[in-house]
Design goal:
Strand order of the largest sheet: 1-3-4-6-7-8
Strand content: 5-15%
Number of strands: 8
Helix content: 55-70%
């Protein structure tokens, strides 16, 4: 009952903490499973796909694709879209309810994809696993749906936080990507979830910066010219990335799921055999790109093959993330910009790593249409606050180029639409989802059969309920104002009984709604059932439903009308 209110804070904060801890444990388990498998399989270090024989690099992604195809065909039961796009869909249309099946499919599918060398990221799976952890915990506790949605949002922030040791970026990501409204009551739990998940990750993996770059100082405004060029290039690359995903996903609809992932395995194998640096997460190559300027021919080839490999894997249904590859490609285009600036503008070649970092933020901000998340990510990843001002410029230019020049939405919306789904964000609907029916229902009611004796009617008037639920055939059927009984008694002082279905009064047809429902679900129920009011109930024992209150359309609409 307390969680149903918009201003509830204490218990949502406790649930946010639990969600963060649960997400942290899940993300640590995922990383240990993936990194342990890579370390056991690859010589030298866990990202060293370059050391594998060419033939093995060719067939390894195909083997992984076959395993993923068999797993999903046998157990997925129609689940094909996972990652951040799936979280957005479940938040928008299913009140944040996730399933154990989706959780297991994401964990196993993404782990197989990364280990087998597909060019995908771990961040999207981490977001899904975090959101699912919060949602499943909320469902197990049988809390209201508005709180389950908030726990899924807490898990989203916690997933990004634990993935990269970036708690602030996790919070901003949840705000921008899930289109949440900033309110203290909802964001205190999200912030605490990000912090607690990050604490679990730090306890296992340490707190050092994920990426190390040399410090950079902006000496003159002319140093911003390469930054402007980088923003424009990153915007164009982001649009190409999104278009490639969209085109490949559209082509892949002609094939069944197993056929699609097998084609993705063939493409990943060919690109990996030719340019092994594109395989897996590619953090070892990313560190090299961020350390020093590299030959521009190598960078151009690396960028092209990474774009092809990732677009094929993600577009054809491999259950991996798209954020990590976006960061990788952003770093490459940034290094290319730094190399060009050193060759033609006389800028110190050592600054190529700085432009690579800006490229990461620009590419992430543009492809996700989440500029603040991109900016905070590169600051927290490198512990370099000096990138804020040039980073803002590059990210905004990249976002504007991708959105306004090329007309591209975020990569997550594109993924949803490519799979026949859509996502519409409505501020009124968001407002209604923040409250449960228990926070808006009227508890001043009485329940009676249709026919009352005069004594029962007078006693009812003395109790003074605002509403009366009238039963028909043993079930609630109509709702009428309590004052109607007093009016009927005053009209005929000699009557011995009153028929609540015959007296002059406004009678509203009733339909049931569960105590866990949100106001948005209640309004949808009124429209779909053709009812005029709802009675709020919950099963307290097998076959026994307790009624907690009544809810009229006017009371729901008062939640958003001035």
């Amino acid at each position: 009952m307390r969680l149903s209110r918009q201003d509830a804070l204490f218990w949502p904060t406790v649930l946010g903490l639990l969600t963060g801890l649960a997400t942290g444990v899940v993300i640590v388990a995922f990383r240990l499973a993936v990194e342990g498998s890579q370390s056991a399989m690859l010589p030298g270090h866990g990202e060293n796909y370059e050391a594998l024989p060419t033939a093995l690099r060719l067939v390894l992604p195909l083997i992984g694709a076959v395993l993923i195809g068999l797993l999903f065909v046998r157990f997925a039961h129609g689940i094909q879209v996972l990652g951040v796009a799936r979280v957005m869909e479940r938040m928008e249309y299913y009140q944040g309810h996730m399933t154990w099946r989706g959780f297991v499919m994401q964990f196993l599918g993404a782990a197989i994809a990364i280990v087998s060398g597909h060019s995908v990221g771990r961040e999207g799976p981490h977001v899904f696993l975090g959101a699912a952890s919060g949602s499943l915990l909320g469902q197990a506790l049988a809390i209201p749906n508005n709180s389950i949605r908030n726990m899924a949002a807490c898990g989203t922030a916690a997933g990004i936080s634990a993935s990269f040791n970036t708690p602030l970026a996790g919070v901003i990501f949840a705000l921008e990507v899930l289109a949440l409204e900033y309110r203290v009551a909802s964001f205190v739990p999200i912030i605490l979830a990000a912090v607690s998940a990050n604490a679990v990750s730090v306890a296992v993996f340490g707190s050092a910066a994920v990426l190390e770059i040399p410090p950079f100082v902006l000496y003159a405004l002319s140093d911003l010219l390469p930054v402007i060029l980088l923003g424009l290039l990153a915007g164009g690359l982001s649009a190409a990335y999104i278009q490639a995903l969209q085109t490949i996903a559209g082509w892949g609809k002609r094939l069944g799921f197993f056929g699609r992932v097998c084609v993705a395995g063939v493409v990943a194998g060919i690109t990996g055999a030719l340019v092994p640096e594109v395989m897996g997460l590619g953090y070892d190559t990313l560190s090299a790109v961020l350390t020093a300027p590299l030959p521009w021919v190598f960078l151009a080839v690396l960028l092209l093959f990474k774009l092809v490999a990732t677009s094929a894997s993600a577009g054809l249904g491999i259950p991996g993330g798209t954020i990590g590859p976006a960061l990788f490609m952003g770093a490459v285009i940034g290094n290319l910009t730094g190399v060009a600036a050193a060759a033609f503008a006389g800028i110190d070649p050592g600054q190529a790593s700085f432009y690579a970092l800006l490229g990461m933020g620009a590419m992430m901000g543009a492809s996700l249409q989440a500029p603040l998340a991109g900016l905070t990510a590169i600051v927290e990843l490198t512990h370099s606050p000096g990138v804020i001002m040039p980073g803002m410029l590059a990210i905004i230019l990249a976002g504007l180029t991708s959105k306004e020049v090329f007309g591209k939405d975020s990569i997550f919306l594109t993924t949803l639409r490519a799979n026949g789904l859509d996502y519409r964000s409505n501020p009124v609907v968001h407002l209604l989802r923040r409250s449960g029916v228990a926070g808006a229902m009227n508890t001043s009611f009485a329940r009676h059969d249709a026919v009352l004796s005069r004594d029962e009617a007078e006693r009812l008037v003395r109790d003074g309920p605002e509403w009366i639920i009238v039963d028909a055939d043993g079930a609630p059927a109509y709702l009428l104002p309590g004052i109607a009984v007093a009016s009927a008694l005053s009209l005929d002082e000699r009557t011995k009984e009153i028929d609540l279905l015959a007296i002059p009064a406004e009678r509203l047809e009733l339909a049931p709604v569960h105590l866990q429902a949100t106001l948005q679900e209640a309004l949808d129920l009124l429209q779909s059932r053709g009812a005029e009011a709802l009675y709020v109930q919950r099963m307290t024992a097998p076959g026994i439903n307790r009624i907690y209150g009544v809810l009229t359309r006017g009371r729901i609409e008062s939640a958003y009308r001035y």
